[in-house]
Design goal:
Length: 189
């Protein structure tokens, strides 16, 4: 099926082989992510966590798009990790947290990200210095905005969901950095 679509893109729309591969890669990624989200939404609805999954997804995508993190090479392992990640965040959001504890967790997350920056998938090219700077600035701005909202608005709906998305996203980013230490794309050439 993939080859038929690639031939169609090349023959009918005159894309190069490389461009057709890029389009197919993007479509595969989109279908993969949409199927995971659809499944998560179907599971969350009967349990009463539909809104939480929507908020969690929005916040996670806004941060993860620029900072990256752990990546899995197979759909099933990625799917299991994503489901576990969502379930842990929802479960942790039910625990009471003090204002000081949240502020310290957010400050620590911001500091960790400032030190390690974005982590790309090993299947993608290493980011150039200008890209690292641009993406880091965007994440720091987003983390600062989310942190300010969490700290200043104690009645913010889904406040603890947003908090745990930030903390666990930065934690898994740190895990990705540790796991990839020494791989060839981490080395400066």
């Amino acid at each position: 099926m993939r080859e038929k679509i690639k031939c169609y893109l090349q023959n009918q729309h005159k894309f190069s082989s490389s461009d057709a591969d890029k389009i197919l890669y993007g479509l595969e990624g989109l279908l993969s992510e949409c199927s995971k989200l659809l499944f998560l939404l179907m599971i969350s609805l009967p349990f009463g966590y539909f809104d939480e999954v929507i908020v969690l997804t929005f916040v996670l995508l806004s941060i993860r798009s620029y900072c990256g993190g752990l990546h899995f090479s197979h759909y099933f392992s990625c799917f299991v990790f994503t489901c576990t990640f969502y379930a842990v965040i929802i479960r942790l959001s039910l625990l009471p947290l003090s204002q000081v504890g949240m502020a310290l967790g957010l400050l620590f997350s911001l500091a960790v990200f400032s030190l390690i920056g974005p982590i790309t998938s090993p299947m993608r090219p290493r980011l150039q210095d200008a890209q690292v700077k641009k993406y880091s600035q965007r994440v720091i701005i987003l983390l600062t905005i989310y942190s300010a909202l969490i700290i200043s608005l104690e009645t913010l709906p889904y406040r603890t969901i947003i908090y745990w998305v930030i903390v666990l996203q930065i934690f898994q980013l740190l895990c990705a950095k540790i796991a990839r230490k020494g791989e060839h794309y981490e080395k400066v050439f």
